[in-house]
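Whiteboard transcription, Tuesday session. T.W. wrote the structure tokens on the left side:
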């Protein structure tokens, strides 16, 4: 809900009432939804989308991640379990991949599931690329947004926020 502050101003002997909007703190996300096929990440609060971003994904294609080094973005339910301000990318939020299901699937295949899946900005020193980074999937399995976008995501998505990655 926005709060309105009224300010009275005397203009040529008349009283004018001006309404000014006080800034409203952005609502924190209570979940993150990543739609791989659409290359979209949505931040949700109370089931409603509060922000939406176009993203670049893993260079290994849209199939689900099944092993370390496949370059794919995982699918499933995870949690943001850390914020990393000292990332090789402009800020990163660590995703709790692999979960128990991912470990089980990798064990059946006799492979390591991998890890270090993040939502992050552009590589340090490459921020000038901006939205152009979305022209192709270039990450090693992560979800990438622009540096300006990751700064917003960083503020809106606290540690502990659930993340769902869908095909």
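and on the right, the sequence the group agreed on:
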């Amino acid at each position: 809900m926005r709060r309105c502050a009224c300010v009275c101003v005397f203009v040529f002997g008349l009283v004018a009432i001006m309404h000014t909007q006080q800034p409203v703190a952005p609502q924190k996300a209570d979940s993150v939804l990543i739609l791989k096929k659409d290359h979209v990440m949505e931040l949700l609060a109370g089931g409603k989308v509060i922000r939406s971003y176009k993203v670049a994904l893993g260079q290994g294609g849209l199939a689900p991640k099944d092993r370390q080094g496949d370059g794919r973005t995982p699918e499933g339910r995870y949690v943001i379990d850390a914020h990393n301000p000292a990332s090789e990318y402009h800020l990163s939020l660590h995703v709790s991949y692999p979960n128990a299901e991912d470990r089980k699937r990798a064990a059946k295949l006799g492979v390591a599931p991998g890890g270090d899946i993040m939502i992050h900005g552009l590589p340090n020193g490459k921020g000038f690329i901006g939205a152009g980074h979305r022209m192709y999937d270039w990450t090693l399995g992560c979800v990438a947004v622009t540096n300006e976008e990751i700064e917003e995501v960083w503020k809106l998505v606290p540690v502990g926020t659930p993340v769902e990655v869908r095909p």
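Someone added at the bottom: The longest helix spans residues 100-109.
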